[in-house]
Amino acid sequence: MTLLTMKFGGTSVGSPEALAQAALIILEQSQRWDRVVVVVSAMNGVTDALTRGAVTAAAGDDQTYRAIVTDLRARHYGTVASLFSPDGERARLLAMVDEYLDEFAAFCRSVHILGEVTPRAMDAITSLGERINARIMAALLRKHSLRSEAVDATELIVTDDTFQNAVPLMDKTRDRVLASLVPLMDSQNIPVVTGFIGATEQGVTTTLGRGGSDYSASILGSCLDADEVWIWTDVDGVMTADPRLVPEARVIPALSASEVSELAYFGAKVLHPRTIWPVIERGIPLWVKNTFNPSCPGTRIVPELESSPGAIKAVTAIQGMSLVTVEGRGMMGVPGIAARTFAAVASQGASVLMISQASSEQSICFVLPTQAVSSVVHAIEKEMALELARRDINRVWSLDNVVIVTAVGAGIRSTPGVAARIFGALGRAGINVIAIAQGSSECSISLVVSSELAVEAVRQIHSQVILEN
Ligand code: ADP
Ligand code: ASP
Ligand code: MG
What we know:
- The strands form three sheets. An eight-stranded mixed β-sheet has the order 3-5-2-1-8-10-11-9, sandwiched between helices. A six-stranded antiparallel β-sheet has the order 13-14-12-15-17-16. A three-stranded mixed β-sheet has the order 4-6-7.
- By secondary structure, the chain is α/β, with parallel strands linked by helices.
- It is built from 15 helices and 17 strands.
- The longest helix has 25 residues, at 90-114.
- Magnesium ion binds next to loops.
């Protein structure tokens, strides 16, 4: 019995034409595979709009969310009206859209009254886009004479209560997935599952973090022991760079799980960073494909590549970062400074993306998202109060508006001189590198550069190091 899990991203289900195209792909694959499970995102931009409605309502604005309701209603109504005839499921779907948008408005009204939006409320609010779209897609498959039902992942994916970035509890999830989806598939149904969302054991809605629908597909694929998981998006696969920044970027036919993890972690939005391991661990092939160019094979992600042509395969950048430096001569050789520094960071719930320490041990610097910086600096100053008073540590400071640029490729391990080529490319372009780190997996090198030079740095590495491989 063959089983395929396919996820369609926001652009792939963001218009009547895109939905129709995605439905054709599902139809075609349903003839090739015994079983197909579909995961859908909200229409592109909808999660952002829902978020904006909640945030503005919390800030005291009771107009913006109403305007958003009007926009979202028009967009979903337009989509439903163009895909479904009045004698079909149209009226039922329009009523469904109204129901969820009424729920959104009611949430925003409460948030407006309370003057705050908790992460828990945010998850309930942002889950609505996926709930609507799964129902539209299932109805569209029924229109194509397939049997299909929408399933809310709140019934399937059991998570902890880290709202907005929930962690799935895989054993419990597997039990639910097998109990709900297998009977559906046994009766020849194609389940259309909401991406992005889950629920705690108590049934409170959570989300897996922005871009999390990819992760949903991988969780379901892993629980069902799918033969393959395909991520359908709006580009031909994982590319040598973000094509929006580098128009000459090319598709990479195959990448190892470690390589793609580094890329995703350091900002390549094409895959949510947590997508990779649940499927790769179970030996399930993962593909990234283009909904709008389905004949292009896309990118295959495999556990390991036997040979890796070229040292560097892709370059990516992650914006909105700050570099924090803890410096002082008295740190030299003193055990525990790094441990205490990072314990202070962790106490603020911040996660560090990159660390580098000067060999003289006179400073430790690390990069983290700018929004976490002030509380982290404060926590470190508190932790190191004694060292600061004794001048063993001179200062703890941050540099904002920096970007991490990461070059990825398993060939880094075996190719001498890769770093030199990268620095040569940047040097010739007059781009100053503020800090450097090489991943311990040895398949990435990360550099910190000032924000305004980030795009140029990506382009230079792409043209001088990747294309010239
Ligand atoms: P979806 O809604 O299908 O999940 P996303 O917008 O989340 O799509 O991700 C796809 C986008 O990721 C592409 O349109 C592209 O601009 C961006 N992207 C960034 N880096 C890369 C890369 N290295 N390869 C491919 N796409 C990339
Ligand atoms: N709709 C969600 C988001 O925009 C999840 C996803 O698209 O993967 O973040
Ligand atoms: Mg995405």
